[in-house]
Design brief:
- By secondary structure, the chain is α+β, with helices and mostly antiparallel strands.
- It contains 10 helices and 8 strands.
- It has a 3-stranded antiparallel sheet.
- Strand 7 and strand 8 form a beta hairpin.
- Helix 5 runs parallel beside helix 6, helix 6 crosses helix 7 and helix 7 packs across helix 10.
Length: 264
Amino acid sequence: MNENTKVTSQTLAGQITAHIQELAEATDAARMSAAMLAYLDTCSRFHRYSANNVWLILMSKPDATMVAGFNRWHSLNRFVKRGEHGIPILAPIVFKENPEDLNSRQVIKGFKVVYVFDISSTEGDPLPEPPNWKSPEQNLALTGKLVEYAETKGITVIFMKLAGETQGVSKGGIIEMDIEAGTKTLIHEIAHEMMHRNADRPVEHTIRELEAESVAYVVGKHLGLEGLCSPNYVALHGATSEMILTHLERIRKTATEIITALEG
């Protein structure tokens, strides 16, 4: 390795580290912003429904988007409209195994039918919008290079219309990209393929997302993509600056490989 190459590599490593540290600081700021706190507080008030109840909801109202019980909507200053019919789901009937023991474990002794209502059946205060997490810029020349790079790694990229808010999906050797997704999303999915298809991949979904999105941010920043919303994206997945910096070396290694390949 000659001196010019060594300096270039060191400079690139320094730039990448600076970008990762910048993302870490911006993520903590995003997590503490008023918009993010309001959105996360609202999300925390909604129950996670079992697979069976999700199926019941979809059978009763296929276009349901956000459901909650009567009292839960009331706590959010929204009210069920007159004449609206609820969606029946099953709620567990829970008893203490030993009623005389305050620390006795709880057991399920059956289920009862309760009703939830979709947001379309309610009116009142608007719910906070999720902070912007999409980076929509499409750089066709860079996208073309990324597709070619993916092919050298044995990854096929397919552009198609994806359901809902999905921008891209990594499926192990195949990446499906929504036709309206930005170039940064393609970098994100390529990072998933490179980092999370081996035995040493992080177990936690949050860590996998912060790694892929951090790589996408660093590469996008280096290549001049604008409107990068990575701090919001990472914050929405529950990541912190400390978590990002803990994975700095894995992020830097993958970002370096992609940037070096794209810049020849």
